[in-house]
Write a structure and sequence with these properties.
The chain has 143 residues and is α+β, with helices and mostly antiparallel strands. The chain has helices spanning 48-72, 106-119, 121-129; strands at 11-15, 22-26, 29-33, 77-87, 91-102, 132-140. The protein has 2 domains: 1-45; 48-140, GMP Synthetase, Chain A, domain 3 (2-Layer Sandwich), CATH 3.30.300. The chain contains 3 helices and 6 strands; from the N terminus they run E-E-E-H-E-E-H-H-E. The strands form 2 sheets. A 3-stranded antiparallel sheet has the order 1-2-3, with no helix packed on it. 13% of the residues are buried. The model has no long low-confidence stretch (mean pLDDT 94).
Length: 143
């Protein structure tokens, strides 16, 4: 497979007194991040840690689609669930990933997932930082 270069990514975060959320900007897209009420936020947006785990799940889902098209010429349904445990001052302690795939045989699902894990920049970054990653693959071939 030909190696693709990923363009530089730039994100800015703005905090303004009077708004308990942080405004995020990437390209010309604005989003907000919140914190849970017990940490002084409103809880009305994803927290930074939820964005981090959502980044992993969404990157793997996009890559799953890409590799499925390359390997089997169709895109089966996939749901990727991610759970993380964090510690203040230490970061990510445990990561659990559940892949639920429908509409493809188990061996093909595993082949696609292996390609995703080998290529996903977010997975590989978190893999270097996390001591304990557990993964589960659930396949329903009939869809």
């Amino acid at each position: 497979m030909e190696r693709m270069e990923i363009p530089k990514v730039e994100v800015k975060a703005f905090y303004h007194p009077g708004n308990s959320n942080v405004v995020l900007k990437a390209r010309n897209i604005l989003r907000e991040a919140s914190e849970l009420p017990e940490f002084g936020g409103t809880g009305n947006e994803f927290t930074p840690l939820e964005y981090m785990l959502a980044s992993l799940a969404s990157c793997e889902a996009f890559m799953f689609s890409m590799f499925a098209k390359m390997l089997i010429k169709k895109v089966p349904q996939v749901e990727i669930g991610v759970e993380g445990e964090f510690s203040l001052g230490e970061g990510l302690k445990t990561l659990r990933i559940i892949y639920r795939v429908a509409g493809v045989e188990e061996d093909l699902a595993h082949a696609i997932i292996n390609q995703v894990k080998a290529s996903c920049p977010i997975y590989n970054t978190l893999k270097k930082a996390c001591e304990k990653i557990s993964e589960e693959v659930v396949v329903n071939p009939s869809g």
